Amino acid sequence: MATALVNTSALVRRSTGEMLVDPPALSRFLDEHRIAADAVDPDRGPTQRDLTAVLALRQEVRSLLETDGEDRVAEGANALLARAGTGPRLERDAEGRWQWYVTTASRASLAEELAAMIGTGLLGVLRTLAHDRIRHCASPACDGMFVDTSKAGRRRYCMPELCGNRINVAKHRARRHSTSETR
Question: Which of 9, 89, 172, 177 is the most buried (most CB within 10 A)?
Answer without folding.
Answer: 9
